[in-house]
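Narrative summary of target 7.
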Amino acid sequence: MAIGKNGINGRFKGKIGNVVGYHLNGQQVIRSTPRKRTIQPSAKELLNRLKFSVSQRWLTPLTDFL
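Modeled conformation, tokenized:
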């Protein structure tokens, strides 16, 4: 990640190729797009995803009330 006051070719916001530019706390931030995961998720990660999805499905109707 790089932070530039005026950017490489001036300030920009958004995605250009594999570079993303945005403002964070008043500074121009430039970073590359994330790479895709190459290894398979472990059994514990899959279990964690399942638990989270169940809790999200349970909480979804409550968001209108809250």
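Strands lie at 2-3, 14-16, 19-24, 27-32.
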